[in-house]
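Invent a record, attention on tokens:
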Amino acid sequence: MEMKGKAWKYGDDVDTDVIIPARYLNTSDPAELARHCMEDIDASFASKVASGDFIVAGKNFGCGSSREHAPIAIKASGASAVIARSFARIFYRNAFNMGLPIFEAPDAVDEIEPGDRLAVDMERGSLRNETKGKEYRFTPIPPFMRELVAAGGLLNYIAKRKKGA
């Protein structure tokens, strides 16, 4: 499965309060969360992100509180994935449980600039920066994790298995 889109780049330690500010956590509606995604770090993100775009960040993306609202907001915004140097462990787990693919690709992150066009093949573990003509490798996502993403998250995955699909 190849995903293509534009890079939205941020720095290190982007915490869950920045991804979705706590003042909006009185709802779990994905569309409402998407309207405020990243607004405290980039007020234009929610209105300008296009379907398929990527969030690219430094180390420890998703640190802070363990709310699952953060990956829900990113996924509902239209972003296809997050690429970072590293992720906070609880965010890593929440992202796959919500069906949001994330990739650790430190070498690529260092060279990606905002607006670069990217293509990611999750199964092969490759990231191509089409703007710069460079390709990078990352550890491919294990098959089980790809199944979670394909199902739309853990709850959908379990429901499909119960039905025998």
Q: What stands out?
A: The chain has a mean pLDDT of 95. The chain is about 35% helix and 20% strand. The two ends are 20 Å apart (CA to CA).
